[in-house]
């Protein structure tokens, strides 16, 4: 029994160490007080049957004074002066692929967004001469990233909605199986509902989506496990069918929304593996 307990404790220690390496490490006050206590030799630790478990600390992402955005959520704001830039931020890791959707909800705003690294250097930028855009950006540093949003030409004002999602590890995603029929609703013009499914190389996927209420022009994008885009389809009417052949194994993601980011509504979708 005691030997089994030691094995479990060692496994927990390995897991904690792996997490600490993944997140870049860190020492908490609890761990620091432990490290400042009298040293124990390996023999003393072995004879007591105990193993020190490191306290894992995730990267610190304190507020920068902006609005903290959450993955898979919609945020709203307004630009009341033509030269105004609203500040938002989010916590990200190196290698994350971020999708940002922005749409004007009132006024004549031509939306623009710029993503900055934790050190303040510019990483990605996108804007539109109409009322909406979609931007994908791969992070190359860890920590707090900032987003400044405003009017493209700094001569118009208006209200806006923005949606942020991490494509390689999405927030708020719903897992689905082949053969499931799913219903959902988009209550913001910029919103994207996120679904996941397990797929393998060579699988041929059929995806059907239809609007059930509202003026939604449906759109769906399938992403690989690493967050890169694989297939995309949309309709200027109320329904479409898409076939997509998978070229990687793992958890794939589907983001669904309105094609032009200017309508809302309810929908129904289904996912079928043809092979």
CATH third-level topology of the largest domain: Jelly Rolls
- Identify the strand order in the major beta sheet: 1-3-8-5-6
Order of helices and strands: HHHEEEEEEEEEEEEEEEEEE
Question: How many domains would you count in the coordinates?
Answer: 3
Question: Spans of 5+ residues with little confidence (pLDDT < 50)?
Answer: 7-58
Proportion of β residues? over 45%
Basic shape: globular
The residue fraction in helices comes out at: 10-25%
Put simply, the count of helices is 3
CATH architecture designation of the largest domain: Sandwich
Biggest sheet record: 5 strands, mixed
Distance between the amino and carboxyl termini? 49 Å
- Over all CA atoms, what is the radius of gyration? 23 Å
How confident is the prediction overall: mean pLDDT? 83
Which secondary-structure class do the elements indicate? Answer: mainly beta
**Structure summary, number of beta strands:** 18
CATH class of the largest domain: Mainly Beta
Structure description:
- This protein is mostly beta strands and 275 residues long.
- It has 3 domains: 2-48, no CATH class; 67-166, Jelly Rolls, CATH 2.60.120; 174-273, Jelly Rolls, CATH 2.60.120.
- 13% of the residues lie in helices and 47% in strands.
Summarize the model shown.
The chain has 275 residues and is mainly beta. The protein contains 3 helices and 18 strands.
């Amino acid at each position: 029994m005691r030997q089994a307990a030691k094995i479990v404790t060692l496994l927990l220690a390995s897991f904690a160490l792996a997490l600490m390496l993944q997140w870049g490490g860190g020492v908490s006050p609890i761990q620091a007080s432990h490290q400042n206590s009298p040293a124990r030799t390996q023999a003393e630790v072995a004879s007591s049957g105990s193993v020190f478990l490191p306290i894992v600390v995730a990267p610190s992402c304190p507020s920068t004074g902006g609005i903290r955005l959450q993955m898979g959520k919609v945020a709203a704001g307004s630009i009341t002066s033509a030269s105004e830039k609203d500040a938002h931020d989010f916590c990200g890791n190196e290698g994350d692929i971020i999708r940002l959707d922005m749409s004007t909800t009132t006024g004549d705003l031509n939306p623009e967004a710029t993503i900055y690294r934790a050190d303040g250097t510019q990483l990605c930028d996108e804007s539109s001469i109409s009322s909406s855009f979609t931007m994908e950006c791969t992070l190359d540093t860890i920590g707090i990233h900032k987003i400044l949003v405003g009017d493209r030409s700094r001569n118009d004002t208006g209200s806006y909605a923005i949606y942020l999602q991490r494509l390689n590890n999405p927030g708020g995603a719903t897992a689905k199986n082949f053969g499931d029929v799913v219903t959902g609703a988009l209550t913001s013009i910029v919103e994207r509902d996120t679904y996941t499914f397990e797929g393998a190389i060579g699988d041929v996927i059929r995806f059907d989506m239809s609007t059930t209420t509202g003026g939604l022009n449906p759109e769906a994008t399938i992403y690989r496990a690493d967050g890169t885009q694989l297939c995309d389809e949309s309709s200027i009417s109320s329904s479409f069918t898409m076939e997509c052949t998978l070229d990687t194994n793992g958890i794939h993601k589907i983001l669904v929304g309105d094609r032009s980011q200017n309508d809302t509504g309810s929908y129904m979708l289904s996912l079928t593996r043809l092979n």
